[in-house]
Design a protein that fits this description.
Length: 146
């Protein structure tokens, strides 16, 4: 697998064998995007964190199929799905299939907002927590804009 994630400057294309194996679940475009996502995240984990890379494109595709192509935090399928570390890397989380959740871009962004929840020891990422975090963020935005 390792050679598939070499840092080639060429356009990120999902390998043909993987396209063939996963064509029942993903379109070619989706596979190319997933490939690019994993390659980018692998680069980020290697260069920005001192964490071993134990997460492959196959793992990511498998997680997404198991999550029924929806966000594991809010259940939405209308946003782009991104790689999300349940325990953040900066808090000692691992870059492994077990610590990675399929998250929509929105829920992943909200986690930044709900970092205070994390510090208070609330590790759940429930729909209501996310809704509350969005409300708080909107309120803060209104207040700072006023
Ligand atoms: Zn979501």
């Amino acid at each position: 697998m390792a050679e598939q994630f070499s840092h080639t400057p060429r356009k990120n294309r999902c390998p043909a064998a993987i396209r063939l194996a996963w064509r029942d679940h993903f379109s070619d475009d989706e596979l190319d995007r997933a490939y690019a996502q994993v390659a980018k995240e692998t680069w980020r984990v290697r260069h920005c964190f001192n964490v071993p890379v134990q997460f492959t494109l196959i793992d990511w595709l498998d997680l997404r199929v198991r999550a029924h192509h929806c966000c594991e935090y809010c259940g939405s399928g209308e946003w782009e799905l991104v790689i999300d570390h349940y325990i953040p890397l900066i808090k000692g989380g691992a870059h492994t299939k077990e610590n990675i959740r399929v998250s929509c871009a929105r829920a992943s962004a909200v986690r930044v907002v709900s970092a205070s929840n994390w510090q208070r020891g609330d590790h759940t990422r429930t729909h209501s927590n996310i809704s509350k975090a969005i409300d708080r963020a909107r309120k803060a935005e209104r207040e700072s804009g006023a």
